[in-house]
Design a protein that fits this description.
It is built from 13 helices and five strands. It is α/β, with parallel strands linked by helices. Strand 4, helix 10 and strand 5 form a beta-alpha-beta unit.
């Protein structure tokens, strides 16, 4: 069996290849070959590189072998070989610049065909250029940065609890999933079968809503959950009483909560002062990703609620309690791994770009 040659780069070779990948002036083929060698130097197998770059394993093996034999010179085409490129480096640079810094008329973003018409090339050529420069104008992700003046202090407080759980205490991530709708479809859906996914009607009948208050035990992964018709401070106090009753009296309780007004209500504050074993830790504003109970809410939404058919709030509530019981029979904690420093390093460029 033939084995792909091992690739080890000098500092100078790595700089050349990385500059090729980064430069908007680089030809698509040069970026493609440079990425193959960089991944190979990082220890990737040829099959994994082929899957990552959407190409064939024979192609990856060819350029690994060429580089092993001739180093950087092996990545250039031999004179007279292959189809001649129909566009220049300046054309590639212009496509990249236009994709990043402009939009077409009467549209919010470029497609391969609108850019092809704009640049006078085929849409497949535009597609190759975008792939080589890792441009995906059709994709969009939502985000929101926290403006909390005490962001770093709150971040350290909460992450510190996750990474170093206190002794003789329990840490609960607490929040409410409000306005869960009991939806009944207007017609029965078609079942899943080979060659066809399951179906459900796009329209529905509403039968009311409920709110799930949940407290996720960070150590064990178990969840205390109660459903109420509303989500005022009154219901929150009832839920805190439930947490108090279901937790051994000799243990302190640390609550990680967001900044929703219900959690800071005057009556809630008085209730907590009367129970010194409760300690509240507020996450920074606009930082719901820091509360692990949101991860549980995603699971119950995907697995029980989103596709469910409920003819009443009672049916919906029963389904939620059934899910909680099943989850608590075999709980698996969500393990937090990132340190405060790692999180700040990742967020700092976002804040810097915001100005």
């Amino acid at each position: 069996m033939r084995h792909a040659p091992r690739i080890e780069l000098t500092a100078e070779e790595r700089d050349v290849l990385e500059n090729t990948v980064r430069s908007s002036r680089s030809a698509v083929r040069d970026v493609f070959r440079a990425r193959i060698i960089l991944l190979a130097a990082d220890g990737w197998e040829s099959g994994d590189i082929a899957a990552e770059l959407a190409t064939g394993q024979d192609t990856v093996s060819k350029w690994r072998r060429r580089f092993a034999e001739k180093r950087l010179a092996g990545l250039t085409d031999q004179p007279g070989r292959g189809r001649k490129r129909q566009y220049t480096d300046q054309t590639v640079e212009r496509i990249v610049e236009d994709t990043l810094h402009s939009t077409p008329e009467q549209a919010t973003h470029w497609s391969t065909r609108t850019m092809a018409k704009h640049a006078g090339l085929s849409h497949t050529t535009v597609q190759r250029i975008w792939r080589a420069h890792e441009l995906k104008p059709h994709l969009l992700r939502t985000f929101k940065l926290s403006n909390d003046k005490h962001f770093v202090e709150k971040l350290r407080d909460v992450v510190g609890l996750y990474l170093n759980l206190p002794e003789h205490a329990l840490v609960y991530c607490v929040d409410e999933k409000s306005q869960i709708q009991a939806l009944d479809r207007t017609q029965p859906g078609l079942p899943l079968k080979q060659g066809r996914c399951g179906t459900m009607t796009h329209d529905y009948k509403r039968h009311g809503t409920t709110t799930l208050f949940a407290a996720l035990n960070v150590l064990e992964g178990t969840v205390i959950g109660k459903c109420y018709h509303r989500h005022r401070h009154i219901e929150y106090l009832r839920f805190l009483g439930e947490v108090d009753r279901q937790t051994p009296a000799e243990l302190d309780i640390h609550l990680i909560v967001d900044n929703y007004s219900t959690h800071k209500h005057e009556r809630v504050t008085v209730w907590l002062k009367r129970r010194p074993r409760f300690h509240v830790h507020f996450i920074p504003t606009s930082s719901s990703w820091l509360n692990l109970v949101e991860r549980f809410f995603r699971d119950i939404t995907d697995r029980q609620i989103r596709r469910g058919v409920f003819k009443s709030v009672r049916e919906l509530t029963k389904a939620i309690y059934d899910f909680l019981e099943h989850h608590n029979d075999n709980p698996k904690p969500f393990v937090w791994t990132k340190t405060t420093g790692q999180i700040l390093d990742k967020l700092s460029p976002l804040y810097a770009n915001r100005g």
